[in-house]
Amino acid sequence: MSLQRDLEALRAIPLFAKVEPARLKLLAFTSEHIDYEPGEIVCRQGEPGDAAYILLEGSADVLVDTPSGRVKVATLGKNEIVGEIAILCDVPRTATVVAATRLHTLKIAKDGFLNLVTQFPHVAVEIMSELAARLHATTQRLTQVSLRLAELESRRP
């Protein structure tokens, strides 16, 4: 895959959409292409996170271990990112990601990403803005679910 295609893939990710193309080229240049066959694990819940993955081709299932077993919480496809929390903070992986189909990814190492935001602080501001919007949307969804649960609880005899 060419550097230009990698750049276009990064620009399609909302997290990177407002980052200058020259900065994204640097990130693309330091990233690595990795392929996965269906059923192969991209990353495992609970493990330390050292990279994020942009899905360039194919799809992947996001699975979360719960007390009642493993639950599929999402299926991701082309131009989506997974594992971004791992490159932003030091927490274990929050889910297991498994290739659902043949999968071609662009692996963004934590070190390369942190180097980018250290050298170009305005990149960090753009990314923080996108993350704040995502957190707001997640909070809204959780509030709706909580209200529904409370309503169901109040109807119980």
Describe the protein.
- This protein is an alpha+beta fold and 157 residues long.
- It has one domain: Sandwich (Jelly Rolls), CATH 2.60.120.
- The protein has five helices and eight strands, in the order ααββββββαββαα.
- The strands form two sheets. Strands 1-8-3-6 form a four-stranded antiparallel beta sheet. It has a four-stranded antiparallel beta sheet with strand order 2-7-4-5, with no helix packed on it.
- Strand 4 and strand 5 form a beta hairpin.
- The longest helix is centred in the last third of the chain and has 35 residues.
- It is globular.
- The mean pLDDT is 87.
> How confident is the prediction overall: mean pLDDT?
87
Rg: 17 Å
Euclidean distance between termini CA atoms: 60 Å
In terms of structural class, how would the helical and strand content be classed? alpha+beta
As a percent range, the share of helical residues equals 40-55%
Counted beta strands: 8
Largest sheet: 4 strands, antiparallel
User: Number of helix segments?
Assistant: 5
Overall geometry comes to: globular
Query: Which CATH C-level class is it?
Result: Mainly Beta
Q: Tell me the fraction of residues in β-strands, as a range.
A: 25-35%
Ranges where pLDDT stays below 50 over 5 or more residues in a row are none
Helix-strand blueprint:
Layout: H1 3-11, H2 21-29, E1 32-36, E2 41-43, E3 51-57, E4 60-66, E5 69-76, E6 81-82, H3 84-88, E7 96-99, E8 103-109, H4 110-119, H5 121-155
Antiparallel strand pairs: 1-8, 2-7, 3-6, 3-8, 4-5, 4-7
